[in-house]
Amino acid sequence: MLHKKEFRLILTNNNSAKINMAIDKALTISYEKDDMPILRFYTWEDSFTIGLGQDFESYTNLKDIYKDNCSKRITGGGVLFHGHDISYSLVLSNTEFGNLSVKQSYEKICQFLLEFYKKVGLNPTFVKDSEYIKLKKNEFCQVGFEAYDIIVDGNKIGGNAQKRNKKLIFQHGSIPILKTKEDKRVGISLEDLDIHLSFEEAQNRLIDAFKECFDAKLILSQLSQIENENLKKILEGK
């Protein structure tokens, strides 16, 4: 009998942007190639993040609005707003998908998101599979369209990004749950599509979709000692 693939499951809720992104960074710098892969789900205070290649000097107005509750991600992409969403991070050895290109691994990982959206009654697809959407870049994540962005009825929902190094593949993304002010830069949410889930319900459904898609066994975990030590150093700016 084949054993299910084991993942550490880390649940961290309602943190600032700086803490959430520092945890992501701590998980990646602490990870060793033969470590158990990690799946993390987390929620946010009202905040925003920017991509690795962006500069906060371009968004001083947003920093004022969000009272400096913002952070830079360790991945690329554009400005993404938080507080209405639940996010995931996935850390795994690059031997898992090392034979796949970035695009191929991105498509494989995102299958659990497609499954989640299908199970709540939506018809999600990748932009690349739509004949009506043209690819376009934008400084705001939810306004642009990349090939592997997920769309529902022509609208982009959530956002995902990936990075790799010699040890690991890291991917994180956002699943918008609650309706916010009407602003195309924020994007649509499940509530906009008449899907009403609490954060806890969404988290449980995402966990179920992940287990189903990856035949995974999730083992509830906390940050390890080395992860906490690295987190402390990151937050102290060391």
From TrEMBL:
Its EC number is 6.3.1.20. It comes from Arcobacter suis CECT 7833. InterPro entries: aa-tRNA-synth_II/BPL/LPL, BPL_LPL_catalytic, Octanoyltrans_LipM/LipL. This is Lipoate--protein ligase A. GO terms for molecular function: lipoate-protein ligase activity. The gene is lplA. Keywords: Ligase. Residues 33-218 form the BPL/LPL catalytic domain. Gene3D superfamilies: Bira Bifunctional Protein, Domain 2. It holds the Pfam family LplA-B_cat. It comes from the Bacteria.
